[in-house]
Design brief:
With 509 residues, the protein is an alpha/beta fold. The chain is built from 15 helices and 23 strands. The chain has a seven-stranded mixed sheet with strand order 12-15-16-11-10-18-19, sandwiched between helices.
């Protein structure tokens, strides 16, 4: 059994949050109607005033005006802001990481890891600033050169979610800034303090390298704040991370004004375990992906599809590991699973498990609540539910630590099960057979934006493009050539001859 849980008083956490904000150079927000609760105790961490409609309009105006000059700054010079931001994040990784824990409930290692991811994307973006390459193509006309160039797009609106309160912002912002865009950020209303800290650090970085701090704006509040960003024609790109329901609302509204949209929505990620798999390796990959961050990653493992020959011994290993997971105060050493973000998440988990059992599922372990300080904190042991089939509840994403276990007999049926959900973010196969691995990665294999072999579904690196297909939205952030989303392409033809030949050999005149 897990040792008895402890948690500090909310007043201690509130004082700690104020200290951390001061250490990060941020001014304590003016109290207001927007309540910030810490999932550690469920108590009030702070309150602040949401941005008014006029303040949001002013932020977009400032970002739009700053873009007029920022776009003409050479990209390697723009990178100076991002380089300095990375340095400041390195200096303050401890303070910002702890603030993430206070607001989002992540354990210390994961919170610091998220800040490290921010540092990594800053390094990537600085290098990218010298690699915004266009192509030169052969022209069919003599004395002509055909090429493409990439130019800054405009104001980028970033709507981020609570589960990665700072990393996802940095994926977008670091790339957007070196591409010559300016940014208006609307964070989750659940995690406004970490946003305030990041905004402060970025504006400090801009001032210290002689750049206009108005290249970044922060607006705070609930859904109506995001809606104003979504509907404003001056926002050239809306990058939105959240639920499929949110994406269904955002996408059409941006499209109606012919803006661009980058959607990172739900994931219902699965891992296939074949008879040739290393079961110890698979167990480690499954447990971290399913239980890490209390199942509140978009890449969390939701479905385990195991071959009939190995499902028994594999489940024995996973259940044993689950019983050893320490659930508790994320500020305590040795804790591996922190709290759910709020009561809605807890109810969603319990409702999903009840539906799964009604569908014939068997709850093997977990799901019980661990009380810490009262009704507003929600610590739950990660659950494993063995299912007879992929029912409706299994096909839905529940943002909580539930692992549904399904059995298969041949790889084709495993891939069909894997792909038989609306979402298409991350996927994995554990196998010792190269043919099985290649089959999973082939065009008729996994239909996800991320497909892994012998590694779990979570823990993506910033060097690769991050995103998914189907109801996940199709967007790509972070590495590879995701930068192209933040720029506009121009095709250029240069005639350096004294003649004016027409394309396709057309004669006119």
């Amino acid at each position: 059994m897990t040792p008895a849980l402890t948690a500090p008083a909310t007043s201690e956490l509130r004082s700690r949050a104020e200290h951390l904000l001061a250490a990060l150079g941020a001014t304590r927000p003016e109290p207001g109607p927007l309540t910030v609760r810490t999932p550690i105790t469920g108590g009030e961490l702070a309150s602040l005033r949401p941005s008014s409609s006029a303040a949001i309009d002013d932020a977009i105006t400032k970002a739009s005006n700053a873009f007029q000059s920022w776009r003409t700054v050479p990209a390697p010079q723009r990178a100076a802001v991002v380089r300095r931001l990375g340095q400041l994040l390195t200096e303050h990784i401890g303070e910002l990481g702890e603030l993430v824990t206070l607001e989002a409930g992540k354990i210390g290692a994961e919170a610091r890891g998220e800040v490290q991811e921010m540092i990594d994307i800053c390094e990537f973006a600085v290098g990218l600033s010298r690699q915004l390459y266009g192509r030169t193509m052969p022209s069919e006309r003599p004395g002509h050169r055909l090429m493409e160039t990439w130019h800054p797009l405009g104001v980028v609106g970033v709507l981020s979610a609570f589960n990665f309160p700072v990393a996802v912002w940095s994926w977008n912002t670091a790339i957007a800034l070196v591409c010559g865009d300016t940014v208006v950020w609307k964070p989750s209303e659940t995690t406004p303090l970490t946003a305030l800290a990041c905004h402060t650090l970025l504006r400090r970085a801009a001032v210290e390298v002689g750049a206009d701090p108005d290249i970044h704006q922060l607006v705070q509040g609930a859904v109506e704040v995001g809606e104003q960003l979504v509907d404003d024609e001056r926002v050239a790109l809306v990058s939105a991370t959240g639920s499929v329901r949110m994406g269904r609302a955002v996408g059409p509204r941006v499209a109606a004004r012919f803006g661009r949209c980058l959607l990172e929505l739900g994931g219902n990620n699965a891992a296939v375990v074949t008879p040739s798999a290393d079961l110890e390796l698979a167990t480690r990959g499954v447990v971290f992906a399913a239980a890490g961050t209390a199942g509140q990653r978009c890449t969390s493992l939701r479905r385990l599809i195991a071959h009939a020959d190995v499902v028994g011994p594999l489940l024995n290993r996973i259940e044993k590991a689950y019983h050893q997971l320490r659930v508790g105060n994320p500020l305590d050493d040795g804790v591996l699973v922190g709290p759910l973000i709020n009561q809605r998440a807890y109810r969603s988990m319990q409702d999903a498990i009840a539906r799964a059992v009604d569908d014939g599922g068997e709850l093997l372990c977990g799901a019980e609540r661990v009380m810490v300080t009262g009704e507003n904190s929600h610590y739950v042991r990660p659950a494993i539910v063995r299912m007879p089939a992929q029912t409706a509840v299994v096909r839905e994403e529940t943002f909580a630590p539930i692992l549904y276990v399904l059995t298969y007999h041949d790889l084709d049926s495993a891939i069909a099960l894997h792909n038989g959900v609306p979402q298409g973010l991350s996927s994995a196969i554990f196998t010792g057979d190269q043919r099985e691995a290649e089959r999973f990665l082939a065009a008729d294999g996994s239909d996800c934006g991320i497909a892994n072999v012998n590694i779990g579904t979570s823990g993506a690196e910033i060097g690769g493009a991050f995103g998914g297909e189907k109801h996940t939205g199709g967007g790509r952030e972070s590495g590879s050539d995701s930068w192209k989303t933040y720029m506009r392409r121009a095709t250029n033809t240069v005639n350096y001859s004294p003649d004016l030949p027409l394309a396709q050999g057309i004669q006119f005149g």
